[in-house]
From TrEMBL:
Protein name: Bifunctional protein FolD
Annotated Tetrahydrofolate dehydrogenase/cyclohydrolase catalytic domain residues: 6-121
PANTHER family linked: C-1-TETRAHYDROFOLATE SYNTHASE, CYTOPLASMIC, C-1-TETRAHYDROFOLATE SYNTHASE, CYTOPLASMIC-RELATED
NCBIfam families the UniProt entry points to: PRK10792.1, PRK14186.1, PRK14188.1
Entry-linked SUPFAM superfamilies: Aminoacid dehydrogenase-like, N-terminal domain, NAD(P)-binding Rossmann-fold domains
Function in brief: Catalyzes the oxidation of 5,10-methylenetetrahydrofolate to 5,10-methenyltetrahydrofolate and then the hydrolysis of 5,10-methenyltetrahydrofolate to 10-formyltetrahydrofolate.
Gene name in the database record: folD
Enzyme Commission number(s) from the entry: 1.5.1.5, 3.5.4.9
CDD domains in the record: NAD_bind_m-THF_DH_Cyclohyd (cd01080)
UniProtKB keywords: Amino-acid biosynthesis, Histidine biosynthesis, Hydrolase, Methionine biosynthesis, Multifunctional enzyme, NADP, One-carbon metabolism, Oxidoreductase, Purine biosynthesis
GO biological-process terms attached to the record: L-histidine biosynthetic process; methionine biosynthetic process; purine nucleotide biosynthetic process; tetrahydrofolate interconversion
InterPro entries registered for this protein in UniProt: Aminoacid_DH-like_N_sf (IPR046346), NAD(P)-bd_dom_sf (IPR036291), THF_DH/CycHdrlase (IPR000672), THF_DH/CycHdrlase_cat_dom (IPR020630), THF_DH/CycHdrlase_CS (IPR020867), THF_DH/CycHdrlase_NAD-bd_dom (IPR020631)
Amino acid sequence: MGARIIDGKGFASGVRGRVAEAVARLKAAHGITPGLAVVLVGEDPASQVYVRNKGVQTREAGMASFEHKLPAETPQAELLALIARLNADPAVHGILVQLPLPGHMDAEAVINAIDPRKDVDGFHVLNVGLLGTGQKAMVPCTPLGCLMLLRDALGDLAGLNAVVVGRSNIVGKPMAQLLLNESCTVTIAHSRTRDLAGLCRSADILVAAVGRPRMIRGDWVKPGATVIDVGINRIEEEGRTRLVGDVDFEGAAGVAGAITPVPGGVGPMTIACLLANTLTACCRANGWPEPE
Ligand code: NDP
């Protein structure tokens, strides 16, 4: 195994520590506590775990955490009314509606009802447009976390060939946009891409956001490339449940220059970036300089 293992867990802990320090400074200087509201509709077990972790880490950073749990059959109008209340609440600087929403809801309408200044997930169409035009946006947490790891691993990314496998609105597309904004030459691959293996072999930066366990093999990786594995897949193996990524870690680690593990890579960065975005939203709302 030749690759350097990128320690997302340790990096995320550093980000959370810096957020906590900035929160303490804001409290001392202005008496204001950044607040994050998380809305969960229904009882999806994975979503419940994510929401619980978000609440714990929000409080650990010294922020206020407001959790709203609604039954799965809640009418959409009721959810929109809650979002309107949170938009108007000055103690709430960030609003996150946990996805996926139950089938009777229109997720786009719900996300676009969030005040874009409080849209700490960065999914509101206004933030998507701001990011796409290189303006100051709320940036989706998972791709933002990946970018932080890449900058730390590689420094300047300009001119590098980046291949992003996956074109979802929450990971693949914003990831590609962020890399383009860093002056990478970006290709987005998806289920209809031809010769995916050959394309991946051209990548100096390979980001996998597919949702298919170990789909990206070691011999798809260019020697020395930096591999970012966003995938979180739960599989049964040797009689137990394991979390694995979209990349065949053992195979890729023998070829890559650096690689994120699963777990302990991108995953912890997502909540750390959520806290950082909430702090940013609080600073912007009050006209204060934004933290680094
Ligand atoms: P989606 O299912 O929304 O998107 C998956 C993408 O992968 C699609 O664009 C799809 O292409 C593409 N794809 C599927 N099969 C293939 C294939 N055989 N070859 C090439 N491309 C393929 O997933 P998400 O973007 O929401 O999530 C991706 C992964 O990241 C999941 O494992 C998820 O659990 C994980 N994740 C991790 C997070 C974290 O915090 N670390 C946060 C969010 C997600 P097409 O568009 O053509 O269908």
